[in-house]
Structures
1.
Amino acid sequence: MEEDIKIPLGQGKFAYGTLRTKSISSLIIFVHGFTGHKNEHIFFNGARFFEKHNLASFRFDLYAEAKDARKLNDSTLTLHAKDLDTVVDYFKKRYAKIFVAGHSFGGITVLLSQKQAFNKAILWDPSPNPKEITGKARYLKEIDKYYLNEWGVATTIGKEMFEQNNSLNTHKLFKNFHVPIKIIAAGNGILVDSGKKYFENANKPKSFAIVNNATHCFDEDGTEEKLFQETYDWIK
């Protein structure tokens, strides 16, 4: 069973998400990547996989079309992390254990968490350097935003996100990240080496795995199931 939930973030903003199977004592929270959303197949199908393994799940949008939701061009990765902390706090009284899985840019969001109030973290093919993506954006003076056109998707981001991403050293974030962490790389993607570097920099306890034949979004037949199993092996 699924329940739509609207979580207050402060200043009139809300996070919209979907809770699946609220009667279980452990929860996994999914964090999407740049220009992503809560119903990407790895989150939608992941919710069903983990339900079968006695975990509730919550998938939510960091930004959405609702008037009182955040918008991408007014967001930053540190704001995403703050919102993640708020979401975790919302569920703390309901669940004995909370796990967080971040995909791509969502992995950086997890690393930027200030409270780190979850039991374990999993980074799914995490982005190593946000500048490599948003650094390609072009400033448009007439709207005071940066315009980016990648993967056939055109979007805008604000100055604050552009500047933060250009200066952020994600590998240094591990110095102050003290939650047990597993990094899972897509074997046919381009982030395997950076995933290994993440693992080297991470504090213990930690784990590393590669899903063979997978690309960044784990679209290939059978790869998302391997991703879910590697995740479950870490948190069970």
2.
Amino acid sequence: MPRRLSDTIRPYRDVLIFMITLLVANYFWKFTMVGDEDGDVVTWFGLDITAPFAWMSCHITRVVYWLVSLCRDTVHMVGPQTLRFDSGSGTSIIWGCSGLKQMFIWLCLILTVCGGWKHKLWFIPMGWLLCHAFNILRIWLITLAIEHHPDWFPVLHDYVFKYLFYGMMFALWVWFVEGIRGPQKGSA
């Protein structure tokens, strides 16, 4: 019986590792990272690690402001992390929107998949860059949408783009597993 179960699971081993790693990394992050909505203080196991989150949030705000300004002349940067439209709607890019969580999960996903370091050493930073680019695209599109439809924010932020983000990460991971790392010994 154990032999049959392992034979049954073997074709799905990488996907199971992906799902378990995604869940463990996500819950590790949720239970060890503490921050308030304003992003004034972010801690990890009691250590103040606010600086990278604050820097990234301000950077993303500046980039999104620039991108929105290309399309609209009704947006204003009213703080280092806050954009406001003439319509009255706006958004704040807080520490949780920095994309650093997804970059952490990406690192965990690639570290736990079987494969040589030669490919992981360039694929991890490439994934980080793509996560950063997707995060900016995500925030830009949400910001454009909420100028006239602020009620769309929860659906776009909490559902649509959250799952598109993880879908993009899964597609990158599949590319690594199927196209970059090469065949593994003992694979079916």
3.
Amino acid sequence: MKNIKYLLPILFFFIGLSVYAQNDDMKKDGEKVEAKELSDGTLYGADINADSKILTISDIYADTAGFSGKTVVVKGSMSELCRSGGCWTVISDGSMNIRALTLHKFIMPKEMDITGKVAVVEGVFSVKEITEDQAKHFAEESGKDPNTVTGPQKMYRITATGIKILK
């Protein structure tokens, strides 16, 4: 019994290390990449593969299972941006949306005016069910009212390696 007061702090230390290691992929390599000015836009992250076919959001929605887990290049209008860290954006065609997540590998200026901006995003596409709390978190980060979010949500997303905002 006497030894338990010594074991508990050690146990909490290792639990803390474990939690930190699980989030390490989002922080360790999180060097903030500077914007790269190109003739056709501003690039954040890695270069977009010029040889890839640029898909529309409706192309992706027409075959979500076929594109799931595959690297895609998609073009759409920016409709939301993470205002707390610049770590994600939503591209849209007006009715369908895809969230491009940077996983903190690079960021975009969180104060950027996205009105009328069109982006080309490259990364791995997937569909994920997110909890109501996660959806509320995204709403808060984009400056929306989180109280308008109810229930779990289906998120169409791209784990982005590069986002180019076109001129």
